[in-house]
Amino acid sequence: MKPSYLESLERIKEEHAEMNKHLSQQRSEIDKIAVEKENMTRSFMTYAEVSTTMRNDLRKAEEQNKRLQDFIIQTLAPMLSQDNQASCLAAMEAFKTASPRENGNGAAIPPGIPPGMLGMFPNIPFGLNPAMSQLFNQFAPPQGNGEGAGGSEPKKAKLEDPDDGELEIDVTNDDNPSTANGTTNKNGRDSTNSVASSDPNMLRQAGGFNLFGDPHASARLAAAMSQMGGRPAYSFKIVDNGVPTPTTFPPDAQKGPGIPTGLKKKMELNHGEVVCAATIARDNSRVYTGGKGCVKIWDVRDTDLSGTTVVSRPPISSLDCLKENYIRSCKLFEDGNTILIGGEASTVALWDLTTETKTLDLETDSQACYALALSPDEKLLFACLADGNILIYDIHNKEKVCTLPGHHDGASCLDLSKDGSKLWSGGLDNSVRCWDMNQRKEIAKYEFASQVFSLGCCPDDEWVAVGMENNNVEVLSTTGKEKYQLTQHESCVLSLKFAHSGKFFISTGKDNVLNAWRTPYGASLFQLKENTSVLSCDISFDDSLIVTGSGEKKATLYAVEY
C-alpha cells in the first residue's frame, strides 16, 4: 500500500496535468480569437475602404450628372430649333423630379442608387422626349469606344452649412495647399458644386462618357457650334420662374461707350495675409486692403496707367484692428478721412484716417460682421451679422436704431439702392431680401437653391446681381418678374461689384477668375484669371481702376481698358 503522501503527490500531478491541458486549450482558444479578431479587423478596414470608395464614387457620379445637365442646357439645347428648345428643357426639369418608375420607364432603379446618378447610365431608358434622345444619340460615341470614364476629378468648392451661421475664411486651396482661398463655414461638412465651363475649348466629360472621345462627335459638335455663333450659351433668361432659355444678345452687347474691353495689371500690393476686403479711395489716390487683424493703406498715385510696368510698393501705413481676426469689409466715407471696418469679431470699428486712431468700437452682439453699407448721407451704417440680423446704427448719435430680423442663417452680403430707400441683403439661408428703409420692414423675398455669398445693386436701381455658392450669378429685375442666370464661374462666387456707370459689373470666385458682364443680360466682356481664389473686389468711382484681393496674400490693381 502506497503511503498517503505518494497518493497525494500523484493526485497533484494528475490535477496539474489536467490544468496544463485546460491551459493549453485556453491558449489555443485565445490564439483562435486573436486570429478571428485580426480577420474581423481586416474585414472592417476593407469594408470601411469600400464604403468610402462607394461614397466617393456616388459623389463623383452625382457631380458628373450635374455637369451633364449643365452641358445639355448650355451647349446642346441651343442647337435645337426654337420649337424644340422649350420642350427639351422642360423635359429635363421634369426628369429631375420624376419618380423611379417614370425615370426607368417602368424598370425599377437598382437599390442604393440615388436618382441623381441615373444620368451616369446611358443604357437605362430615361423616357425623355424625342428631341433629347436625338441629342444623346447624335453626340454619344460608338459602343465599345473604350473612352469616357477616365479624367481628372472636378474641382470642389468647400462650402459648408454652418450650425452657428458663422462664415470663415478657408485658408486652403484646391490647387495649391500652401495658399489661402475661398470661404467656408465652421462645422466641417462640405458640398461640391461645379458647372461645366462655357468655353468650348474647356468642355469636358459629361454623363459618364467623353463627348469628345469620338472625333466624329467632336466634328459634329464643332459644326453645330459654328452655326450658332461658335460659343455655347452661358446666359439664360427666366420669366415668371419659367424654363431658362438662352439669351439673345443685341449686336452692341460687347462694345460701345463705357463698355470695357479688358484689364491691364498696374500694381501688386503684397499685404502678407489673405486679402478678404479691398476698396479704392474716391480720388484714386489710395487703396485699402483688409487681411488678418489689420487694414493696410497703399499710395497708388503717380501710377502710369498707359505703360506696361507693374509696380510693387510697401504700404504707407497699417491700422491694427479686430486683433487677430479676419477683416471682411471696409467702407470708406466720401471724403476719404474715415473708414468703417468689420469682420470675424463682435465689433465694428470706425477709424479716423487723418490721425489713424479708432473713434468708435461698436458692439454688435454677434460673432461676426460679413458686410457693411453706408446711407447716402453717411449717417447710418448697416451691418450683416452672423446671427442673420442686419444692424442699423446711427453714427452721429452713436446709438443703435434697430435690427432687421429675417434671415434664418448668417446675413452674408448687402447693398443699398442709390437713393437709400431700399436695402438688399443676401444670406446663408438661400434667400435675398429687399427692405423698405422708410418703414424698416421686409417688402420682398427671393428664394434660391443655394447660399448667397455676394450682392450688388445697379446704380439705376433696376437690377440686383447676386453671387451664389452654386457658381451662378443671378441678375434680378427690381421692377419686373424676369431674371438672368449666368454660368461662367466654375466655383462659388465670392464677390461682386457694379461699375458706377451701371453699364457693367464684375464678379470674382473661388475658381481664381474675375468675370466682367454687360448689365443686365450678362454678355461676357472679358475674363481674367489669377493664381488663387479672388475673395474681394472694388471698382473706382470713375470706373478706371479695379482692385482685387486674393488668397495669394496680396491685392492687385488693374487699369480698365476701353
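Next protein, fold it too.
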Amino acid sequence: MQLISYISSKTSYSEKSIQNTVELLNEDCTIPFIARYRKERTGNLDEVEIGEIVALKEAFETLEKRKKAILKALEEQEVLTAELQSKIENTQDLTTLEDIYLPYKKKRKTKAETAKNNGLEPLAKIIMSQKADDLDYIASKYINSAVENEEQVLEGARHIIAEWINERSDIRNLIRRELERFSTIVTKVVKTKKEDENAQKFKDYFDWSESLHRIPSHRLLAILRGEKEGIIRVKIEIDDDRVLEKIDRKLIKSNNECGAEIQLAIDDAYKRLLLPSLTTEAMNIAKEKADEAAITVFKNNLEQLLLGAPLGEKRILAIDPGFRTGCKVVCLSEHGELLYNTAIYPNAPQNNITESAYTIEHLIKEYHIEAISIGNGTASRETERFIKNIPATKNLEVFVVNEAGASIYSASKIARDEFPKEDVTVRGAVSIGRRLADPLAELVKIDPKSIGVGQYQHDVDQNQLKKSLDTVVEHCVNKVGVNINTASASLLSYVSGIGPKLAENIVTHRNQHGVFKTRDDIKKVARLGGKAFEQSAGFLRIKQGDNPLDNSSVHPESYSLVKKMAKDLQLKTEDLIGNTKQLKEIQLSKYVTSEFGLLTLKDIVKELEKPGLDPREKAKAFSFSEEVKTITDLKVGMVLPGIVNNITNFGCFVDIGIKESGLVHVSNLSDTYVEDINKIVRLQQQVQVKVLEIDIARKRIQLSMKKGG
C-alpha cells in the first residue's frame, strides 16, 4: 500500500505498526485511545509517535489529491504522456511535484508567451542548440509586424529561453541548495519610522544581517512582525555571482554568439523569475520552521500549565485584587460551586483595612475556608500582604495564582452560561479560585492563546497553532481522566470520543437524571453510541460508584479479565484493587489472549495498584520577597524567589512579584551546558534567581539561576 510505504520511508516504525495504526485511525479511533488501549496493535507507539503517523497520513492524502488535480489538468491540455504520468505518480513531495507541473501550469500572459505568439520559439531552440553562427542573419528571418528588428527578435527569443531555464527543476534545486546553505536575511529600518515609539521594540533590527539557515525562530518571527508593522524592510541575499557561475557551467557549452545570448537569458531568468520566486519560497520554509518551533514551545508550556499542581477538593476563598474598584471576593465549595460573593477595599485609595479584615475573617469562619487564592494582577502584592496580616489566615495556605485569561473567561459564553446572574468581576474571581483547585478543569474553558504562555502566537500559522494546542489539551485531559459527575461541558468535550455536542448531552443527562452510578449508565446519554463509549469510557471516572473499577483507567472491555484475576486469587474484585501484594503474585502470561497482550496486562495491574491516581503534583504555597514591590526596588546582585511563568527557546521568564517578569537567558540557566531548557526548568517551578541587569527605561530585567550567579 502506497500510504504505508510513504510513512515507513519517513519514520523508523515497522510497517505492521503503521498499518495497524492507520486501520485504527480509519475506524475513527482517537490518538489517546489508541496509545492507551491498543498497544499490542501499534507496537507500543506513544501519542507523539501516533501523532506523527497522523500528520504523515494527512500529508500523503494532500499529495495524492494534488497529483489527481494535476493529472486531470494535463489530460485536459492533452499533453499527458505515459512517461509524465509515471513521473508524477512516483513523486514523493509537493515541491518536486510543482516543479514537474510548472512548464504546463497556466500562467498570466508572460513575455515568453508573447514571444512564442510572435513565432520566435524555433529561434530560441536554435540558440539553445549552440551550434549556429551569424545570429543577426538568422534573426532577420523572424522579423514581422510585431518584432521589427533583429534586436527585438533576439530579445523575444531570450525571454523564451529564460522561461525554459526557470522551469528546469535542476536549476531550481541548485538555487534552493544555495539559499538553504548560504543565504543571509538582511534588515534595514524604514527611515520615516525610525523615531516612532513603537519602532523601539525592533531597534536591534534597524541594521541587521544573519544566516537564514541559522537564525533562531523567535528572532525570525520578531523580524517578520517588524516588517508587517512597517518598521523594517527585509530581504534575502546570496552570492549572485557564484550562483550564476554554477548555472552558466550547466547551460553554456560553446563560446559563440549563442552562448552569449544564453548568458543574457540566464541573467534575466535569475533576476526576474528564479530569485524572486525561490527567495520567497525560502522565506516561507524558514517561516514554517519558525512557526513549528514557536508552536512546540507553546505546546510544551501549555502542557506544563494544564498539568500544573492542583490543590484538590478544598473550600477556597478567591480574590481578584484591585485598587480603586476594590477586590472582588468569592467563596467556593470543595466542588467549585459559588457560595457567596462580595467586595472589599483594603487598598488605596480607600484603605478600608479594618472592615475588609473583618469581612475576610467572617467568610473564613462562615464557609469553612481551607485555602486562599489571590490573582497575580494589579494590586496582587498589596492584597497578599493584607491577607497574610489577618490573624484568621495564619493557619491557611495563601496562594498567588496566575490570572492570565481570567478576564477572557469572565466575558465568554461559557462563563455567562455558568453564572448568568453574576457580573464579569464575580466570574473572574471564581476562575482564580477554581484554577487553584484544578488548573486543568478551569483552563480548558479559555482559548489557549489567551493563557499567556506562548510567544508570537498571533504571528504563526493560526490553523496549525489551534490544531496543535487542541491536541495538547486533549492529551492532558485524557492523561488525568475526568470525573463525569462534576466535569463541565468544556472539560468533557476534550475527552477521547466525546466532543462539544456529546459533552453538552452528558451535562444535560446529568442534570435531568442525577449522577452516573456506573460507566454503563453513560450509554443512556442521547446520541452517545457504541464507538463513542468505546473511545471515552476508560478516561471517564465515577467516584463512589457501584463498581470500583469505574474510578480507574481500566477499560470496561477488560473488566471480565480483572474479575477472572480476582477469582483465581479467591478474592472479590474490590479486594484486589490496591492489594499490591496479591497483584504482584499474578502470573500475567496466564492471561495473555489474542485480544490482551502483556503490555495491556501490565497497564491493568499498574492501575489496580493505585486506581485513579492523579499524575499531577500537589500545589505548594509560595511567597515573593517583601523587599521588592516595583522595578525601581531592584538592585544588581539581589537574590530573589520567583516562579517560572514562561519558557522560550532562548531562556525562561520568571515572575519575581512585580509587574515586569525577568529573563533568565539560556546562558544563565545552569553552570553546565543546556541542551534542552525543559530539562532544567518547568512552568510554575519555584526558583531562586540573582539580578544581573536592570534596564528601567525598556523595563527589562536580566536574571541568573547559576549557582555561582
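About the second fold: The mean pLDDT is 95.
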